[in-house]
């Protein structure tokens, strides 16, 4: 890993030498081309960059479809990279969920694309990065126009997803519901836990005095219904 980090450091030094002003990007990838894939996902890549002091030189080029190969949601690495201000570029392709391998199909899932665009909007865009169209046509698609239609489909999918995400953010209803779900962390014991100002012993004492906490529903179906409202809005 230290040898790999040194190559990344040399690349950053060469960028400065030639005066390149673009953003250097690293793509996390769960498998290939190396046997030891140190950049297997967003978190492992960010850890490596920060451990070797390289995070100020690079951002991540996230291919959401790779998250499916690690049994994670499509948008997972997009959100993890954005949470640490490391999201630099997004590949607008997808993979068959039933196939445990990259298939690079042109993006067509509106729900997944909306989650990605919501994240991109909330971080203020991709600055020097952007979206790349890495989708391919399938083996039974043999004409040049098939690739043309595939890229149109991907662009339309993310364009509509952008409108969906903008609507979600502008009306604020979805974010308010999420805030309500985590309201217990904004006061009392939960607030102290979030701020790191409480110990296990104090938590035990709290439970002894107040009794076992009462489980609360995550209301998963409620949030999915709300999300569908933005992805598939009723016709006016």
From TrEMBL:
EC number: 5.3.1.5
InterPro entries per UniProt: Xyl_isomerase-like_sf, Xylose_isomerase
Family: Belongs to the xylose isomerase family.
Any GO MF annotation of the entry: metal ion binding
Enzyme class: isomerase
Taxonomic superkingdom: Eukaryota
GO BP terms: D-xylose metabolic process
Protein name: Xylose isomerase
Catalytic activity: alpha-D-xylose = alpha-D-xylulofuranose
UniProt source species: Penaeus vannamei (Whiteleg shrimp)
Keywords: Carbohydrate metabolism, Isomerase, Metal-binding, Xylose metabolism
Keyword Transmembrane helix: no
